[in-house]
Amino acid sequence: MPTDSTPTTEAATSTDPAPRIEFEDVEKKFGKTTVLKDLNFTIGRGERVTLIGPSGSGKTTILRLLMTLEDLTDGYIWVDGDPLTHDRRDGKRVELKPKQIAQVRKRIGMVFQQFNLFPNMSVLDNITEAPIHVLGQSKDEAKENALTLLDRVGLRNRADAHPTQLSGGQQQRVAIARALAMDPEILLLDEVTSALDPELVGDVLGVLEDVAETTDITMLIVTHEMQFARDVSQRVMMFDGGQIVEEAPPEEMFTRPKNERTQKFLEAII
Amino acid sequence: MFDSELFLEALPVLLKAFVEVTLVVTVLGSLLAAVLGLVWAIALRELPAAIGRPLRWVLDFIRMTPLPVHLLVVYYAFTQISPKTVGILVIGIHYSTYMAESYRSGIDSIRSGQWEAATALSLPRSRTWRAVILPQAIRNTLPSLGNWAIAMFKDTPFLIFISVPEMVTAARVFGGRNFSYIEAMTVAGLLFLLASYPTAVLMQKLEKKLAY
């Protein structure tokens, strides 16, 4: 839990610890298209939540907003009670400075559908780059951590390889190690197996299941792998048209969906 | 007729002009152009439009007006600078505007996922440029930079406009003195070829070496 960050009025007035993530009246438009509107939800500390829904329902946008890859059109996102991109001061919405945003963003990591490893660096350098240059770790320390993480994802023997020499599944496991090297409180997984050959999916999900079991990292997962969602997450949120249409624990959601839209969606994909 | 004795006589004379002027101007001009071009390309992406747009106008203006005009203007405007230095600066700046375009397309070719991964790791902007974007972009840009350097090399005879005694001028003087131009001009052409060709080969090798 971050202790060095300045608490906002929100966090200061509340006696309970602030939720890990809070979306408050979030709106996101791309041009004239509204993707998310009046979206409110909270994610608890250590909670693992899967977002499902048809494409265009806004689930990936939620992850991208949290990672500050997209600008919020309106509303607020709070991380541990701290404002992510916009703060409320005297009832006004104020955009934060890049340095302030970076402070909170450091607590968040993301794994992408397309891996997005840096092809000009070795596997090891991909993992140590940010710990050295963002967290200020020494090279030796970063290397040691990286090798431990590579062990965990089963790729220690490929530390000196370049990403182009690896299979998609191996690249994605390196990408997971790279995100974990930043010791994030929140891990965003954006369709991490969608670009993989079917026989490589299992290894990647296995690594993520291990992370879920052995850490208390809060996870937000966008996936079409329903078995994985069921195994890993404590809550599933069904999105449609930028709104949460239903949310429930996975067993309930996948066996007895209440909402008609959810039923149709699950029928179509399972 | 082709006088081979005159040819051999012209060789050392022109070689001297080649090394002292053509080569020096090309090497220093290329370095200047490569550095400035990169500065322009990054500035155009990073600066706010209020500064970026005027910068773009200036670069477009330079790129779309002839090199000899620039040489003459700067030569007459700054008489205190030696003509050779004027040549290096003007050629370097002129070609930096072309190289900036090459860098720009190299940078644009980097997939947005690379920028996003850098953001997700909270890498500072400067570090993202230095460690992630530029190593990939420059590798994509290198062949084109090499071509601009060779084009610059072939443009050095324009220095005749500001009376810098580069190789082609030396060949003309030599030809005039001996009442036969063909030998000296042949030497000049061969020297150009002898320098351009290995440069092109070298660039190809460098490209391969930078591949990953």
UniProtKB/TrEMBL annotation, chain A:
<dbReference type="GO" id="GO:0005524">
    <property type="term" value="F:ATP binding"/>
</dbReference>
<keyword id="KW-0067">ATP-binding</keyword>
<keyword id="KW-0029">Amino-acid transport</keyword>
<dbReference type="InterPro" id="IPR003593">
    <property type="entry name" value="AAA+_ATPase"/>
</dbReference>
<keyword id="KW-0547">Nucleotide-binding</keyword>
<dbReference type="GO" id="GO:0005886">
    <property type="term" value="C:plasma membrane"/>
</dbReference>
<dbReference type="Pfam" id="PF00005">
    <property type="entry name" value="ABC_tran"/>
</dbReference>
<comment type="similarity">
    <text>Belongs to the ABC transporter superfamily.</text>
</comment>
<dbReference type="InterPro" id="IPR003439">
    <property type="entry name" value="ABC_transporter-like_ATP-bd"/>
</dbReference>
<dbReference type="InterPro" id="IPR014343">
    <property type="entry name" value="Ectoine_EhuA"/>
</dbReference>
<dbReference type="InterPro" id="IPR030679">
    <property type="entry name" value="ABC_ATPase_HisP-typ"/>
</dbReference>
<dbReference type="InterPro" id="IPR050086">
    <property type="entry name" value="MetN_ABC_transporter-like"/>
</dbReference>
<dbReference type="GO" id="GO:0015424">
    <property type="term" value="F:ABC-type amino acid transporter activity"/>
</dbReference>
<feature type="domain" description="ABC transporter">
    <location>
        <begin position="21"/>
        <end position="266"/>
    </location>
</feature>
<keyword id="KW-0813">Transport</keyword>
<dbReference type="GO" id="GO:0016887">
    <property type="term" value="F:ATP hydrolysis activity"/>
</dbReference>
<protein>
    <submittedName>
        <fullName>Amino acid ABC transporter ATP-binding protein (PAAT family)</fullName>
    </submittedName>
</protein>
<dbReference type="InterPro" id="IPR017871">
    <property type="entry name" value="ABC_transporter-like_CS"/>
</dbReference>
<keyword id="KW-1003">Cell membrane</keyword>
<dbReference type="InterPro" id="IPR027417">
    <property type="entry name" value="P-loop_NTPase"/>
</dbReference>
<keyword id="KW-0472">Membrane</keyword>
Automatic annotation (TrEMBL), chain B:
<keyword id="KW-0029">Amino-acid transport</keyword>
<keyword id="KW-0813">Transport</keyword>
<protein>
    <submittedName>
        <fullName>Amino acid ABC transporter membrane protein 2 (PAAT family)</fullName>
    </submittedName>
</protein>
<dbReference type="Pfam" id="PF00528">
    <property type="entry name" value="BPD_transp_1"/>
</dbReference>
<comment type="similarity">
    <text>Belongs to the binding-protein-dependent transport system permease family.</text>
</comment>
<keyword id="KW-1003">Cell membrane</keyword>
<feature type="transmembrane region" description="Helical">
    <location>
        <begin position="21"/>
        <end position="43"/>
    </location>
</feature>
<dbReference type="InterPro" id="IPR010065">
    <property type="entry name" value="AA_ABC_transptr_permease_3TM"/>
</dbReference>
<feature type="transmembrane region" description="Helical">
    <location>
        <begin position="181"/>
        <end position="203"/>
    </location>
</feature>
<dbReference type="GO" id="GO:0022857">
    <property type="term" value="F:transmembrane transporter activity"/>
</dbReference>
<feature type="domain" description="ABC transmembrane type-1">
    <location>
        <begin position="19"/>
        <end position="203"/>
    </location>
</feature>
<keyword id="KW-1133">Transmembrane helix</keyword>
<dbReference type="InterPro" id="IPR043429">
    <property type="entry name" value="ArtM/GltK/GlnP/TcyL/YhdX-like"/>
</dbReference>
<dbReference type="InterPro" id="IPR035906">
    <property type="entry name" value="MetI-like_sf"/>
</dbReference>
<dbReference type="GO" id="GO:0043190">
    <property type="term" value="C:ATP-binding cassette (ABC) transporter complex"/>
</dbReference>
<keyword id="KW-0472">Membrane</keyword>
<keyword id="KW-0812">Transmembrane</keyword>
<dbReference type="InterPro" id="IPR000515">
    <property type="entry name" value="MetI-like"/>
</dbReference>
<dbReference type="GO" id="GO:0006865">
    <property type="term" value="P:amino acid transport"/>
</dbReference>
